[in-house]
Every structure is written in structure tokens, then in C-alpha cells.
Amino acid sequence: MFEKSCLEKIEDYLWEIPKSYRKAMKVPARVYATEGMIDDIVGDESLNQLVNVAQLPGIVGSALAMPDVHEGYGFPVGGVAAFDVNGGIISPGGIGYDINCGVRLLKSNLFFDDIKEKLKDLANQIARDVPSGVGRGGRFVLDPGEMDKVLEWGVERLVELGYASQNDLDHIESGGRLDSASAGKVSDHAKKRGRDQCGTLGAGNHFIEVGRADEIFEKDEASKLGIYKDQICVFIHTGSRGLGHQIATDYIKKMLKAADKYGIKLPDRELACAPYFSREGQDYWAAMCAGANFAWSNRQMITYYIREAWQRILGGENDLSIVYDVAHNIAKVEEHNVNGKKKKVVVHRKGATRAFENQPVIIPGTMGTSSFLLVGQKGSMDKTFGSSCHGAGRTMSRTRAKKTIDYNQLRKMLDERGIIIKAGSKKGLLEEAPAAYKDVDDVVNVVHQAGIAKKVVRFRPVVVVKG
Amino acid sequence: MTFEILKHTADVRVKATGKDLGDLLVNALEGMNEILDPKIRTGVIGKKSKVEIESVDRDALVVDFLSEILLLSQTDKVVWTDVVFKEIEEKNLVAEMAGSEVKEFGDDIKAVTYHGAKIATNEEGRLEVTILFDI
Questions:
Q1: What's the predicted TM-score (pTM) here?
Q2: CA distance B54 to B70
Q3: Which domains does chain A have, with CATH numbers?
Q4: Do A135 and B135 touch (CB under 8 A)?
Q5: Quick check: A316 and A110 in contact, CB under 8 A?
Q6: Containing domain of residue B25, as a range?
Q7: Closest residue of chain A to B55, computed from CA coordinates
Q8: Considering only CB atoms, which chain A residues are within 8 Å of B10?
Q9: Are A99 and A291 in contact (CB under 8 A)?
Q10: For residue A397, what pLDDT band results from cuts at 50, 70 and 90?
């Protein structure tokens, strides 16, 4: 809970908790939201967590929350924080356990009417070809040597192996590879946990969605990206699987010791951190980059399987090309304007999407509503360290969703909306029901109105495959 | 009560109690196993393993113990249940576990977090801790 009266509205859609709110705060905390959203946001721990982030060494600008914010552990989910590379920290908790969880958008050259009769077959084939579900391994098993290459070279290695093209690389954030990655900084435990998980979807809120471009808001921007009304596209939402989870687990434990060593007072242990330019900070940075490379490779292998499934059902030339692939759980070293000066900072995005000016921003909704393609605006560079929201944002606990949502009614609702669902379990479907999330339209409208990213295309799901 | 599952917007919290540190760890593990929802493979020989943990303090020891067992559960596909502590102190422990092979887990846990994991003594004089699992 947070006292709403401690928030000050400083612009339309922007609220501030001033630095004076707590002595230890180094910068203000800011949240992008409507008044209605604020009433919900103050109901959980999100803003207390954001206030904690604002106390970390070297933070610059303000600690930021996007409109889809909800409580996490340590950092809130939907949080953005930038730290000066000199004197600032890096914190594994500010990236999260699912390193480089993100979304990839593929476009086909087909339209809804071309394939509506084949959607069921397509759903079955994708569900068969892409391993999904709790702990499910896949057919692409990495021996130790190959694992190290994927960790260090990311999707570039998959080009060498024939699973990706140069054109694919050109449409992935950072070209699908962070070159600071070092496989030697990733534990054997983490490698073991991920050895058969490259090319697997996992469970929870991860999914593959075939969507139909249902509304074009910006015709010119959409056609620049090659997307037209009723065109069929595919969203892939997943991350670095068990490998990333283990990297985070290993390093948060190390950072607890490190924080003590460097005299950093932690308001919450999940904010465990070390100076970016310390040995511990650099080790984690190299391991996180390796985890990010694994995640891009994971989405690439899934793309490969979907392309196979696509061809098997629809025939013809392989016509699924990447619009963009963007992370929403990651740290990046970037240059931003801080108090009128260019500064190199470590931007932590935990449940926040990079949204540089003119960059495609992919925001998945829930399985029954809509997903969006936006394009980053100048406002994101001025106000949010080039970041936007990452989805609808949970509002109901998984337990409550299972207790209160009726399975048959949910299936009926999805049927009525013409959505074919392939879900690994009834439980998984209930936990991810649209009613468990905020309204994605409202969330996206806030970033649009605030000048962070503008709406270009809205998609309606026609097929959803979940673990 | 040995453990109960509490609400959290996106993740799952388990409150565990115990008469001493060892009992608390075992009950917290039971809570974690309930979230994992293992489908046990019948008719196979039980599995054994061992963990050695060193932590910064007693609170972290609970989290580090559960993290290590989670790793073994997921890599070996085993649910670990019978724990015998060979050594247990405030900051370290050695434990031997026995468990059953599973066909699959019904739910995934990404990680055990340190968030709010602080051991306290409750009104009944039992140790109590709440652990948040990222799922």
C-alpha cells in the first residue's frame, strides 16, 4: 500500500514522489499512469519498491514506473532505472530472473482471408513443433562447446548453423548479440539447466500468438514496417528459460556479499548490487549478456520451428520475416541526456521495453484481447531513458484467477472471439485469463499520450499457443 | 501449521514455520514442493543427493537452501522430500536428501527470492519466514 496523497501530478499522465519523501532517496520516483490506474497502483507494493530503487548508488534522473507496473520483489515489474557507469551500480534484481525475456514479431505475406480455413491446422502444427510447458526440453540440445558459442555469439552462431539469416540479425535488438558476453562467467549449473531449452517456450505467461492486424493507426509507419490491415503476423514471447533464471540466482547471492563489501545499504535484499566497474559488477554484466544472447537464440530457434510449421501447413516460400525483436528484462549500457549532459548509464529495464526514437516497440496483451506495435518517440529519449511499457500488467494473483475465473466461460469467451487456443494445462489458461490483467488498451494509450511511443498497429489474436 | 501459501500479484509467497532452523527449512521446502506440483513416477528407485550451503546469514541460508534444491529438482527431475541435516549452523549447512523421480512438474518456479525473507519468532514461539517465489 502507498499513500496516494504523497504523489504529485506533474504532467498529464505523469506522477511524482518527490525526493524529499524519504531521506535516503537520491532522485525522485515517477510513474506514468492515468488517475484511475494510480488508484490501483497504490494498492500494492509497486511504489514502495520504486522508492527503494531511488535510493541505490549512482541512480540518475528518476526511478521510473511504466503504466503496467505491478509489485515484484526488489524492483517493481514495469520499472526503469539508469545508473551512472562511473560510481553507479548494476543489480541483477533490476533485470529479473528471466534475463532478456522479450517479444519478437514476425510478419507473413498472407492476409486473414487467405488462411482462415487453415488456422486450426496451423495451431496444431505450431503446438506440435515448438516444445512448451514446465521444464520441457527441446530437440536442439547444446553440448558444452556449442553452449559456449551460443552464449558468446548469440544469433550470429545460429546463422552459422543455418537456423537464422543475416536479414534476421538486422531486425533484432543489438543484432541478437551482446559482445560483452563471457561463457566463462556462467556457472555449469546454469548451463546444465539450459542445455536442452534453446528453442522452447516454457510455461507461465509465455506464448506464441498468431494475430491479425485489426486496426492501423499510422498508415505510413505501418507500411514502412510492411504491415497492412488484416495481415497475419506472429508474436513470440519468451526469454532465457532456466539458464537465465540460474544466472540471476547465482549472481544475486554473490551480490549480497558484494554489497556488504562495497558498503552499499540495501533497502531490500533483491536489490543486491555492486558498482558497475567492480569485479563482481563486470562478472555479472558478462554473464547477463550471455543470458541475453541465449534468450535471443531461444526466440530464433522458435522462429525456425514456426517457419517449418508454416511451410508444412501453408506450403510455398518461407515468408515469415522478423519485424523486430526487443527485450523487456535487460540492462544496457547506453548514452542518455542527464540534466542537459550526455552521460553513459546502465539502464535497467525490468518489465519495460526499449523504445528508442523510431524503433518498433512490441507490446503483447493478453490471449483474449489485443497486442500492439508502436514506434518509439522522442519523448522516450527525453523522459524515460528510451523505455516504454511491456504489456498489460497483472492485476490479479494467479491463485485468485484460478479460484474466481470459470474455465468453461473463459473457453466460451475465447471461442466467441474466434480465438483458437492450444494450452498445455487448464490451470495455465486460467492463470493467464484476460481478467487477470489490466486493460492493455489503457496501458498503451498512456505511453502514446505521454509521447513515449505512438500506436501504429493493433492486432487481434486468432491463434494462441501456451505452455 | 507448517506452511501456507499467500497471495501476491504476480508470484507466489509461502509462509513457513518451524520449531527450529532445520524444521523451518524442511517446512519451507514442503511449501516449495507444493507449488512445483510434482507428478511422481511410480515404480522407480528413490534418488539421493547432498547439498552444502554457505550463506551470508541465517535469512539467506533459507533462500540459498531452497535455491539449491530447486536447481536439483529441475535438472534431475526429482522432488526432494526427506532431508537429514548432517551439519546446520546459522550460516551454513550440509544436508542429505532423498526423493522421488517425477514425470513432470505441474508448475514452474523460476527462482527463490530474498525479498522479505526474514526469520522471526512468532507468538507461539516458533520460527517463521515468508519466501517469495518468482514463477
A1: 0.96
A2: 16
A3: 4-87+100-466 (3.90.1860.10)
A4: no
A5: no
A6: 3-134
A7: A253
A8: 70-72, 77, 394, 397-398
A9: yes
A10: confident
